[in-house]
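Dear Dr. H.,

I hope your travels went smoothly. While you were away I took the liberty of generating a structure for the chain from your last submission, since the lab meeting agenda had it listed for discussion. I wanted you to have the full record in hand beforehand rather than looking at slides cold. The sequence, exactly as received, is reproduced here:
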Amino acid sequence: MSNYQTARTALGARLKEMRAEAGLSGKQVAAALGWLPSKVSKLEHGKQTPTEEDVRAWAATVGQPAAANELTNRLRALETHYASWKRQMSAGIRARQEAWRFDEASSTRLLCFESACVPGLLQTPEYARHMFLRLNEVFHNPGTIDDGVRARMHRQQILYDPGRTFHFLIWEAALHVPLCPPEVMAGQLDRLVGAVGLNAIRVGIVPLGGPISIAPSHGFWVYDERLVKVETIAAELRITEQSEIGIYLDVWRRLEQAAVHGPAAHRLLARVRACLDQGNDEQANA
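The corresponding predicted structure, in token form, is as follows:
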């Protein structure tokens, strides 16, 4: 169980305890609040995250209004580990990029694995623009794309800061995903070729069809071995429990062993570029 789910389960147990102390059944609390009984059950069993309004209403209903601050503090601590994309995107793409920049600026060693796209710190402006366009299609966010692209490019300045090291691993499949037009992907591949030779940056590609000891199920970032960030479809998770960070570091080592670097990475990128060019020619002749 993740630290986020553990905290949510603990919050649910506290809500249940308060209800029991008041001598109320779940159905009685639901009726008083105008909720479905299933919502009470989900909250108490850690299956649903309450809002601040929910926990304040709960505290008042069970006769413990003074406990509202305790519950909201628990909820806010919980939310530091889980932030939905819908909530983050409501503040705009630029705000989210600046939040990532803060975590990067407070770290000296960053490990990144991406399985479905090029890492943000290595993206070209055109590739980033198409990534943000895809996000807007899903979350219906009216945020300014241009501001987001500029913020992402500003983030990339950290790659040249002295005293920092970056190690990127990219599953080869991510280089074949057509998230952007072929000419944009061609420029992105050229950017990766150039990044392979930078001093403080190490770029590895996990090849398709090569031996691998673990499935690359999703991307993640590791900051100084004190924080792991994981992007799911609906949310961003922040993992700080050392035992869980250790699991990600073990996965990282396994993926690194399967990856190719240096000249071998250049050759793989050249093959991907050749496949892209061949696909363009076939479309042109169709």
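Two observations you may find useful: The chain has twelve helices and seven strands. The CA atoms of residues 89 and 141 lie 6 Å apart.

With kind regards,
E. W.
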